[in-house]
Each structure stands twice: as structure tokens, then as C-alpha cells.
Amino acid sequence: MQQKHRRRHTFPLDPWGIRETGFDTDSHFLDETLFALGNGYIGLRGSHEETYTGPKGSSRDGSYLNGFYDTEEIHYPENAYGLARLNEFMLNVPNGKRIECFIEGERVDLLQGEVADYERALDFRRGIVERRFEWVSPQGRRIAISSRRIVCLAHKHLYGMQYQVRAMNFSGRVRLVSILDGAVKNLEAGDDPRVGSTVHGPSLHLLDLEQEGGYAALIQRTTNSGFTLVSAIESELSGASGTIGHAVHGQRIETLFDCDLARGGSAGLVKFGCYFSSRDFPEAELASRARETLREARLSGFDALCAEQEAWLADFWKQADVEIAGDDALQQGMRFNQFHLLQSVGRDGKSNIAAKGVTGEGYEGHYFWDTEIYILPFFLYSKPDVARKLLEYRYAGLPKARERARQMAHGRGALYPWRTIAGEECSAYYPAGTAQYHINADIAYSIKQYVEISGDMAYLLQYGAEIVLDTARIWTGIGGYAPGEPDRFCINTVTGPDEYTAIVNNNYYTNLMAQLHLRYAVEVAETVMRADPSAYARIAAAIELDPTEIAEWRRAADCMVLPYDEKRGIHPQDDSFLSKKVWDFAATPRANYPLLLHYHPLVIYRHQVCKQADVVLALLLQGDRFTLEEKRRDFDYYEKITTHDSSLSSCIFSIIAAEVGYADKAYDYFMETARLDLDDTHGNTCHGVHTAAMAGTWLGVACGFGGMRGYGGNLRFAPSLPRQWSHYRFRVHVRGQLLQVQVAQDGVEYRLLKGEHLNFAHRGEAVELTRARPARKLP
Ligand code: BGC
After folding, report:
1. Of 499, 639, 659, 672, which residue is the catalytic one?
2. How far apart are CA 631 and CA 515, in angstroms?
3. Given pLDDT bands bounded at 50, 70 and 90, which one contains residue 2?
4. Atom of ligand 1 minimally distant from the CA of 611
5. Is the pTM of the predicted complex or chain greater than 0.85?
6. Are 691 and 339 in contact (CB under 8 A)?
7. What digits encode the pLDDT tens for the residues 376-395?
8. From CA 47, how far away is CA 57, in angstroms rounded?
9. Relative to the CA of 691, which ligand 1 atom is closest?
10. Who contacts 138 (Cβ-Cβ below 8 Å, separation ≥6)?
11. Exposure winner among 64, 420, 645, 755, fewest CB in 10 A?
């Protein structure tokens, strides 16, 4: 296993939060990610309220809106037909977080003067960041400052802040400046392809601004996508009286509050902010919606919004909490990850969950297969309503997927983009982008899993069936029978999940998933035809489905080539994989990882070396098709050549290691994933959290140690307890019921928390669980 860069655990091991006790400019960019707040739409990086000056005073500040984007043309010095043309990228939107504080004219600056008793904490149960410190100015004035910040989970467009100051050793004038800064732009990408867009300069242009009393708003338009955005704040003094003033500098609006404080006296500022865009509402309504939202927030008050946030989260944790007893670092990592997933996930059916959530500009706010294969299961089992929204989003993308299929010379069917925001294919590097056709099968797999586990047939009839059928056609479009070999259905010239191998024939993962997709398409067509003939007629008409296609799918699935190497007893990753030489790991210095930053792609492609789980992932997704021995052999083989340069890898290796009985490896790989962002083990959390890996932590507990699988909608468990833990517990929703699984040294307990009756298997033994009687099994 490749050892990753390690950062010390800097936060105390609190099971329900993270807390920093020193103002540390060295880990500044990283902390901005870790302390970011979001509600699935708004994402605010955890920058401080005050600006800093000095050489270490820079920040990678950002405020983002999930699904809100601008576009840029992709320029290729050497062009080719059908390359992705338009990049959609998530925008850094006006910054409403800033509050400046002046005492007798001296500006509070954490890098000047002295900071004492500093503490900042993010609480996962309350969904709030709280901060307090004392600051001594260069002229010796001491002031105590505390602040609170929330992004409201119950209100898509709203965030709020409270800022409190107390004059400790002086009396005099305090000025609080509440700022809305619209002069923002995105980060510029360097050589790291994972970082940001290539756009230089601002993407948002001022149309108008408003300032009146405590209210301030900016109305801007994006350069190319043509969206209008209203960003507004409402600020008000609390606990003190003072005067109000106004200033505007370009696109920066300031509301200034002056008050005179006696020694020991205090003053506060409450600030609410919101964003409304024409992606959600008609342009004419945006300004009035913003005003109304802020008016209502003011009426409710900051404390009431905090109470509402806590209640909202209590409900979430009741469904989703995973308890790990015996390892505080893991417990903290686990809940941190769950909390960030919740903060990142779009819940409006129009947005999805980006690779970095709404915490940074890495991967430009794009959505990938990460959603379906890694993240969706977490929501499916923990909060199924969110899983549905994620899949509704895919339905909304169907027209664009059809367009893309035509560009790719598929006369029929739909091909989903490898990376996108609003449906456009945005992968400029097609060998590791568009070529990953498996995205279609991943989406179909996830619809199957969703429908079977949630029982939501309405989704299938209204949305899912059409997706599954129209995307299945692509396999018969790109695949085919080798000349003279009518029994071998091959899928050539694709890239599988492992991005260190590209443009290959018969990638094992792709073929196996395509096979399942084709078979599921046949099943869906037959089920819908039977259950709801009028729905079938509607869908068939919409996609002009020819009944002969269904027979074609069945045959292609039955003839699908699934490479197997008899000599080694393993599944080769593709037709040519085993003929390549193995990467010389011994001669590769640690500093050369990730390989993608140090070697030309061709150099990498010529070797047996994997960035991430590929065959090993197939062993998880369709585990019922392999024997334990096969799994062990594949695991052993691929483990030796996998660098885990992708954060999507270790969790999958952990799960399969647990299954094949490699307990220590399962634990080590799990550790790699569980604190990946908290410990910044990939060294790039400053660009945003890794949402797929975060969900991988949950998969590691439920599917890895818990041994849970849900093939065909039938749950089965095979729990094991890592020796480092005294017990662990997780909960899963299945068809409207909520099951709790607790694994301890003295046995496993299954308890139905919601619902009356559930059948599942424990280590192959059928269990019939009722609400009244929990089932206990020996370890
Ligand atoms: C991985 C992909 C993944 C993407 C976004 C890449 O490094 O190789 O599998 O979809 O990151 O997370």
C-alpha cells in the first residue's frame, strides 16, 4: 500500500465536532475547507470574518452555490471532432461573510497585534461554527470577540452570522462593518488537473446594487451562461445603540455601525445573507424573494434559526448516525464525513453532489460517477429522500445525454457526461473522461439499487425506466460481435474506473456492469409493461423503442466477454492489461506520487499500475457472482499494483479485504479513508473535501465490517468486529423500515427502529425480525 502524506491530528478527538485552539496560518487553506459550512446549495468556506494582512495573510476564500455555474469554451490547440466544447464551472459568488471591526480606528487583524484564548469549533449536532478570541491591538487595546455562523439546512437560500465584541480594557468607539463583496473570481488552475477552471478574471458582472438601512444587495449576471444572481445581506446592531452609515467601493457594499462602548461594554451585529438565481426562479422575482427571505430571517432571529438547525440535524443523526466505540479518531472522522456529505448534497433535483461538495473549487464543482457508485448508497440507506433527488437530477439530464449520444455517433440512446454540472460533457481529456462509458451502467446500477432497497416504484415508472432503457442502447451501439465470433460481445475502446489505464478493449468492470445494465433494461421493460402498460406505452413512444431491441440486449448480455486468466486465476482488467510490464514501484520515489503529477499519461498507460479499484470494485458491486477464492486472488493481484492515487480507492479495498478475511488490511485501508480530509492525507483537502471517499467511510462500516450487501433488494450481513473497537452500530433504511445493526464482542444485535417486520440474512441464515423482538446472533 502506498503510504500517503501524513498530517498530525491537530484537533482534539471530539466525537461530535472539530475544534482548533490556536490561530494557525500554516494550515489556513486546509482549515477553510474543514470549517466550511453548507446546506446542499450554499457553501461557505471557513474563512474568518476579518481580513488579515501580511505575508501569511492570504486566503482561498470562496462562497459557492451548488449547480450555479458559468461556462467557458474549451480550446484545443489540436482539435478533433466531438471533443467536449463547453466547460461548466461552479462560480465563486459574492462574499457575504466579511465583518470588519475597528476599535478607535484600529482594525482588528489576527496577524497584527496579539491573539489570545483563540478557539474555533464546528459542531456536527448543531451545524454551527463558533469562534472566540481576545485581541490586543498594537496600541494595547484589548477586545473580546465571538462569532457564530450557520448555513441553514432547512432554508436553501439562507445563511446567518452573529458577531459580538466586548471592550476589555478601554472605552471608546467601535465600528463594525458588515460587507457584501461582489468583486470575486475563481481560482486559477495551475498544473494540477484536479484544481480549478482556466478562466481568468471575474465571471460575474454588476447589473445593479441596492443599499438601504441594513439591507444591501448585488445584482449580477454571469458572463456566458446568462444567469442573474441576487446576493443580499441584512445587518443589524444588537445589544447596543449606534449610528449607521453606508459606503460602496465598486462591487463591495459596506454597512457601517458605530457605537461608543464603555470599558466592559459590548455590542453585537446580526447578519443574514441569501442568494437567489435565475436558475431557480424567474429573474423578476429574485430581488423580492431575497428581501422577503431576509425579512423573515430577521423576524425569526438568529437563535431561532440555530434551534431549527439543531432539530433538523437531530432528525438526520437519528437516521444516519454511525457509532464506533473504541477509536475516537475514527469516530470523529466518520461523523465529520457524514456531516460534510449532508452539507454538500443537492436536494432540489436540479443539482447533485460535486466531487468536492461546495467546499472548494477542486474539480470545478463537477458531478461524476462518484455520486452513483459511492455517495448514493450512503443516502439511500441513511436518508432515502435525498437519494431520490440525486436520481431525479439524472432524469433532468436525459435530454443533454441524448444530444451527447448523437455527437458520439450513436443514432439512438443517451450517453451521460463523465463530468458535468448542468448536463454538458465537460471532460476535456477524453481518455480519462468521455471514454469512461461505464457512467451509463453506474447510473442504471444505482437506479436498480435505489428501487429495490427503497421500494419506490413510482420513481421507476416516472423517471428511472426511461433512463435505464435509453442508456442501455449505448451498449449495443458501441459493443459488437467480433467477426466470426457470434458468441463474443465485445466493448472496445473505453476506459474503466482505473484512470491509469485508458482506451482499452473489454475492460472487465465496464463489461460486467454493462451486462447487468442490459439485463436490468430487459427486466424493467417487462416489469413496466406488466405493471403499468400505459406508462410503458408512454416511455416506448418517447424513446421510440423497438421491441427487437430488447431481444438484442438479452443476447448481448448473454454473450458479454468477461475476461478471465486461467493461469493466474484472476480477472484481467482488460484484454491487454496482463501483457504490459508491471510498474517499477521499488524505483519510484515517494515524492513521485500521485503518478499523474509526475509522468506523462502514456508512460503510465504502458504499465500494469492502477490508480484505483477497478476489478476490485466489480467484486463489490456484483459480489454475488464471484466465489470467495476468486475475490481473494483478484484482491491479491491488484493490491500489489494499485497506488490508491485516487481517494476513491482505499475504501473499496477495505471492504473486499474485510470480506476475504484480511482483517488488518481492512482496518488499514479503512483508516486511509476515514480521516482522509481531517488529516489531509492526500495533501489537497485545501481544494475541497473528497465526497466520494467520505461516503466510502460509511460503505467501509456497513459493507466492509458489517458485511452488508443488498443484491436484488435482499439484505444480508456478515459482521465482523475490528479488534481495535469495542463495538459499532449503524442504521439502514429499507423499504420504509429502519434497521439498527449493533456489533459487539459478545454478539450482533439487529433491532427494528421503524416498521414492523423485516427479513434478511445473517451469515447465510434467514432472520425474520419483528419490531417487538430484536434478534441476537453470536459473533
Ligand atoms: C478519479 C475518478 C473520480 C474523480 C472525481 C479522479 O481522481 O480517478 O474516478 O471520478 O477523481 O472524484
Report:
1. 499
2. 19
3. very low
4. 8
5. yes
6. no
7. 999 999 999 999 999 999 99
8. 11
9. 12
10. 106, 112, 113
11. 755
